[in-house]
Amino acid sequence: MTTVPTSADLPVSIDDIRAAHARIRDAIVRTPTLLSRTLSEMTGATVYLKFENLQFTAAYKERGALNTLLQMTDAQRRCGVIAASAGNHAQGLAYHARRLGIPATIVMPTTTPIVKVQQTESHEARIILFGENVDESLAHARAVAATEGQTIVHPFDDAKIIAGQGTTAIEMLEDVPQIDMFAVPIGGGGLISGIATVAKAQDRAIEVVGVEAELYPSMYNRINGKNLECGGDTLAEGIAVKEPGGITARIIAELVDDIVLVAERDLERAVSLLLQIEKTVVEGAGAAGLAALLAYPERFRGRTVGIVLCGGNIDTRLLANVLLRDLARSGRLARLRIRLKDRPGQLFNLARVFDEQQVNIIEVYHQRVFTTLPAKGLITDIECETRDRAHLERLMTALHMAGYEVTPVELA
């Protein structure tokens, strides 16, 4: 990828983004950009986090939506806007449309979680549930717009949207001029297109690295001429895009230095660390930048890295699951499968080993019937809580020394 085009070569310029910032800054939250000392120590980079999860709708998408709404004509405002989205774009557009008195219609896939539908409805938008995915919803939105006359506001493949999203980088470089690298999530590409436009307009070298979920490498494929499969259940559903934008792909090809792919395990760990260390709730897509630093520390070591925590809308049950899985992977929560003899006192004697090692037993699953062992054999699964991986290893050693066959039940 090259980094030398002039602003005239591309559909969005630094002047467009500066104008967008002047246009929207009084109606959005000027979110802080703060140093994370702990994450810096963990990764070897100097890590600055921009807390866009503190926007009113908990995502940066408000920026592009508002920039677009403020440039509509009076006639367009009267007819209203329509968009296809299952998440943050829907809420950001609906919120600011209501503020400005512009009718908003949001077409959402029928599979959209009810909480997201309700959050969007709370901004007085008309909701249409249609299609199995956002692509089908977008096709329906175009049909509705053709009939009813609304203006379609695309979630990422639009110059006004990109200019609005790029205002995040304007603020970050004002607050922390020493940033020399950005790690930015890529879904459709609107955010990174705006950030890269700002970065490459500076009078010094700033590297821009895009981050995609390993399950959805759509922009990576387009830029690198690859054909990796796109699909699956990802924690980062906000960047689970199979068809990236045409405008954004053009900007990314010119201005973005690299794209890396992160696995689900890295995304889960990033979400968990941000909650534990920074005490902030971030959705999977919003944690992708940090996930890249965890997965590729050598790529970022020694650099001053700006990361946008671009959204905080994560289902609470999913968040709880992510946190528990992270505890399990770190050895602080474990399930041990132990073979016992069918005789009195076996569970009592087993529990004594846990007591001696000061390990807290959370659950006991005693299995006599559904097992491949002989009729007098039985399996016990014990969920337990330890201080760390070393503590867990000491417990397993003690169990072996006491004559028990024990194996950990591992996470995928």
Automatic annotation (TrEMBL):
Keyword Signal tagged: no
Main enzyme class: lyase
Keywords attached to this entry: Lyase, Pyridoxal phosphate
GO annotation terms (biological process): isoleucine biosynthetic process; L-serine catabolic process; L-threonine catabolic process
CDD domains associated with the record: ACT_ThrD-II-like (cd04886), Thr-dehyd (cd01562)
Pfam family, one: PALP
Family stated for the protein in its record: Belongs to the serine/threonine dehydratase family.
Superkingdom of the source species: Bacteria
Ranges of residues in domain ACT: 335-412
EC number: 4.3.1.19
InterPro entries reported in the protein's UniProt record: ACT_dom (IPR002912), ACT_ThrD-II-like (IPR044561), Ser/Thr_Dehydratase (IPR050147), Thr_deHydtase_catblc (IPR005789), TrpB-like_PALP (IPR001926), TrpB-like_PALP_sf (IPR036052)
Species lineage: Bacteria, Pseudomonadati, Pseudomonadota, Alphaproteobacteria, Sphingomonadales
Catalytically driven reaction(s): L-serine = pyruvate + NH4(+)
Entry cofactors: pyridoxal 5'-phosphate
Protein name: Threonine dehydratase
Keyword Lyase: yes
